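Q&A FORM
Asked by: J.P.
Topic: structure of Peptidyl-prolyl cis-trans isomerase

PROVIDED:
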Amino acid sequence: MKASLLFSLLLAGLLASCGQPEKPAATAPAPPPPVPGPSLSALTDTNATALLTQYGREFPASEVIVHTRLGDMRVKLYDDVPVHKANFLLLARKGVFDETVFNRVVKGFAIQGGRSDHRTIRINRYHLPPEIVPQHFHKRGALGMARYDDDQNPGKLSSNSDFYIVQGEKLTPAQSAAMAGRPLTPAQQQVYATQGGAPSLDGKYTVFGEVVEGLDVIDKIAAEPVGTDKWPKKDVEIKVEVLK
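REPLIED BY: S.T.
REPLY: Here is the structure written out as C-alpha cells.
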C-alpha cells in the first residue's frame, strides 16, 4: 500500500512537472551597437580627408569634456577646421582617447596627450592636412594637433591622435611678436600679454579648439612630477566625452 501510494505521488509529480512550461534559457546581453563612422584601420593619407569631412557632416558636435583625475576640461571645437574636428570626434566616440594618457608635459609650455603603452584599439597611421587658420592662435587653453618637425614633415601634416593643450606664459607684445611664426594682430598680442600662450607655434601647427572651462586643470597637470622623457611619473589618464 505504501509502495503504491509512493508510486502514485511520484507519478503525479512527474505529470505536474511535465505540464509546466520550460523556463527560457538565459541569454547574454546584446553587444552595444557599433559606433558609426569610417573604420580606424581603413583610414589612410589618401582617403582620410574625404571620409572625415563626410563624417563631420553626418555626425556633428561642437563640445567635448576631457576627464582626468585632476579635474575636467570643457573644450569647444572650431567649425572652420573641419577635418581635425571630425577626426577628434571620431576617435573620441570610438574610445581611442580613453586608452591614453597625457604623455608629455612641459611646464610653462604645453601638455600633450593621446598616446599610451597599452592601447588595444587598432588605428591606422594616417595624417591630417594642415588647417592653419590665422584667427586661431596658441593662446592659453588652445587645443592643437602635434606633428613631426619640418625636416621630416615639410607639408606640416598633423598626427592623427597626438594632441596638445597650451599652458604657455604671459609675454609682452614685443616678445610675442618676435616669437610668433607669423604676424600677429594687436588683439592677439594683447591676449598673449594678459592670458599667456605659446606664439612660437603659430603658423606651424593646426589649432582646432580651446578650453572654455577648467583652465586650472592645465596648470595642475603641468605641475605633475615628470621623468626625463617628460612623461608624468603618475599617469594622468584621459577620458573624452562628446557632448553635442
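FOLLOW-UP: The chain has one domain: 37-242.
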